[in-house]
# Entry
Amino acid sequence: MAPIINFFKEEFLMNRFFKLLLSLALVMALAIPAAAGVLAEVQKKGVLTLGVSEGVAGFSAPDSKGKWVGFDVDMGHAVAAAVLKNADAIKYVPLASKQKIVAVSSGQVDITSRTTTWTMKRDAKQGVDFTVVVFYDGQGFMVKKDLGVKSAKDLNGASVSVTSGTTSELNVADFARANKIKLETVVFESKKEAFNAYLAGRVDAFTTDMSQLAAMRTTTPDPSQHIILPEMFSKEPMGPLVRHGDNQWKDLVTWVIYGLIEAEEKGITQANVLEMKAKSQDPVVKRMLGATGDIGSFINLDNDWLVRAIQAVGNYGEIYERHFGSDTTLNIPRGNNNLWTNGGLMYAMPIR
# Structure
């Protein structure tokens, strides 16, 4: 009997030990204040810390006066206007490709809005959450006209410069295997270094997203001497990203961007947003602009959050035209970046 009695005594003591540990853990958890979310932090410091590129025309780059401008920058302005009631309350942090993910996951920036492709690995394993795809793109090649190449499939044996920390190297390898050609990739730390190596003739071709090829070609002394080959050989859906685990902040950034897309669909512009709020009889417009309902409370803001965002930067279409439209040097057709009603992929979730 003694062994059996000892066994039950040990079991009783062990159960009490685990219960004590559980109680201590609960007390400690209650004693430690919950970490402030990014929304509270941004509101407290009164500025949005925005990760941008090191300089890509059309997306994010300093202008002649040193002011950051571009499509990705405007996404940051919209969030700052919604949250801080001041679209210019932004601290810019230029990030190299290899820094753009860790800067968000580590809390160095509140948002990264800079030509970053939404991939499974980044979204699931690297401590960040993507919000909304704001630009559908794909990778391509640029070559000098005198190389005499008309198709990417004619690059067999060529050397190609790529940027560290991007998906470009894997995409090039996949393209070469799929088309049974050999390509030598030469990796550089920054996109500028990779592009300069191409310009200097150290490699035969330069590769990145098609939109960035168009942007970087405009910076050459004679853009007509550089050809963007026709093949788009990857999917590059790009969008702002935030730190993983802060659902409140992710929801807020997500719905500000959806609001800009929905505003274009509803014909709400930077010029008419206040009139639309006052006079529109469309129940969706009235709800979006805070004339009825209380949608601001869903993302912990007041009801004028979207009005401020649109006043600051306009709707999605206005932002696109400002930086990529026919009156710009880039002149990138909208294609997949059209609204779904115009044959594109831009489709906002319902604001209700």
User: Anything to note?
Assistant: Residues 55 and 66 are 11 Å apart (CA to CA).
